[in-house]
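=== RUN LOG ===
request id: a7f3
mode: sequence -> structure
chains: 1
length: 137
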Amino acid sequence: MEEIEGLSRQAAEGRVQVLDRQSDSELDRLYASATMVIQPSLEEGFGLPVVEALASGIPVCCSDIPALREAAQGRAHMFDPESVEAIARAIDRTASAAAAGDVPEPPDMPTPLVFAQSFVRLIRQTADAGQATSASE
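=== RESULT ===
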């Protein structure tokens, strides 16, 4: 409870901001001015903020859960999302690394065109395999 009260005081002092949905242009502005991105989460479908932050060259620390582990590709400081101490240590490690200029390389992400081409190729291969199975029956 003390941690929550502390965060409330910091928010009142303007040191912590809790934001709702943001436009793409506002997200660009926020990423451009961010020192780091911290994503505590118990479950995620993908982890887009982690990917976006890393692609922008912003240090990240996030929950050590499957979706964020995959999104970070080993480029973030991970933490147990149910441990205040683990979160604090990860934030400290991320801040220290950033201060030392140790910013991870952006993850290897395909361009939208390459992704679309790969997706179409996969669909065609699946369809071809389905047709071959039907023909052999």
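=== NOTES ===
Strands lie at 37-39, 60-63, 77-79.
Residues 50 and 72 are 6 Å apart (CA to CA).
=== END ===
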